[in-house]
Design goal:
The protein is of the alpha/beta class. It has 12 helices and 13 strands. A 6-stranded mixed β-sheet has the order 8-13-12-9-10-11, sandwiched between helices. A 5-stranded mixed β-sheet has the order 3-2-1-4-7, sandwiched between helices. It has a two-stranded antiparallel ribbon with strand order 5-6.
Length: about 325
């Protein structure tokens, strides 16, 4: 019987899988495109079949944990940014797992934050700021959607991850260009959440409103990075500035003097544009609370698969 456990981090675009011996490192990490599979169990079966073909003992896997980009409340999970819908109990039985833990993906990522070493994060401005030990840590991350979470200390070196949907909180503009964005998106959607702007589709929406041009998010970032399109650079600058404002809101809400982290798939691709952006200025730009936020360090998560680390820790706590 296999002693390996199955771990997964599933977003609206990609599903990241790994195997792990309890207390050990990750083995056989593979990323599958969600669109290639009709159901989540199809993706799991495909990954395990490929791992078995590579000589790994997958037949006896009994414990699994999935971090997923969605609220997890009750037995039925229906993804917001993808078509997969499943029963947790039904998936557990179909896969013959003894344990199947399903948690919000940003709660899993948040669980990893206190354990990130210097090689897994990169400082974003605020070089005079320092994290306060044993205080809440905040997290925000734009990707296919916008994840928001944090961890709070629970004593004895333990941390409790917060599973919320802060990405769907209402967007608040701070200048006239952002008022234009809000007006245009109001017409399209009614309620305008932070996720409507801080995501892959959000990057496209910002560009469509400000530049009057429809471009894919990947093209916007590529043209901004190579300097071939001033409008694309302006779009990326607006995106980073808005991200700073929303990150500051999260830090204020959580009292995240233990630090504020940026995860997700988009920001690492922006490279020097992000570090040169107004992100940090907008993070601190909260009027009378500017000095409070100036003391909070901000970090970019650079570890490749941090949510897998987090969901493994949660599975450790859930199994003997």
């Amino acid at each position: 019987m296999s002693a390996l456990r199955l771990l997964a981090d599933i977003g609206g675009t990609n599903a990241r899988f790994a195997l792990q011996a309890p207390g050990g490192g990750f083995a056989d990490i593979e990323v599958l495109a969600c669109r290639d599979y009709d159901r989540i169990d199809d993706a799991i079966a495909a990954y395990l079949a490929r791992a078995a073909a590579r000589g790994l003992p997958t037949d006896g896997i009994r414990h699994a944990a999935i971090a997923i980009a969605n609220p997890v409340e009750g037995d039925v999970v229906s993804m917001t940014n993808h078509h997969w819908r499943f029963s947790i109990a039904g998936l557990r039985d179909a896969c013959a797992f003894t344990t199947l833990l399903v948690v919000n993906d940003f709660a899993a990522l948040a669980q990893a934050l206190p354990h990130l070493g210097t090689g897994g994060r990169q400082r974003i401005g605020g070089t005079d700021s320092a994290a306060v030990e044993g205080r809440p840590i905040g997290l925000i991350g734009p990707g296919t959607g916008l994840g928001v979470s944090g961890v709070v200390p629970a004593g004895g070196g333990r941390w409790i991850a917060l599973a919320g949907e802060g990405g769907h909180a209402s967007f608040a503009p701070v200048d006239r260009d952002e008022m234009r964005l809000l007006d245009a998106l109001w017409e399209e959607h009614g309620h305008v959440s932070a996720e409507r702007l801080l995501s892959g589709p959000g990057l496209e929406a910002i560009h469509r409103v400000l530049a009057g041009e429809r471009l894919a998010a990947a093209d916007i970032t590529a043209r901004a990075l190579d300097g071939s399109c001033a409008a694309c650079r302006a779009t990326v600058d607006a995106f980073c500035a808005i991200l700073g404002s929303v990150a500051g809101n999260v830090a204020l809400t959580l009292g995240a003097t233990g630090g504020m982290y940026v995860g997700g798939g988009i920001v690492p691709r922006l490279g020097p544009l992000f570090h040169a952006s107004a992100f940090r200025a907008r993070f601190e730009g909260k009027g009378r609370l500017q000095a409070y936020l100036a003391r909070i360090p901000t970090w970019l998560v650079t570890e490749p698969y941090p949510a897998l680390r987090g969901v493994a820790a949660l599975l450790d706590a859930a199994t003997p």
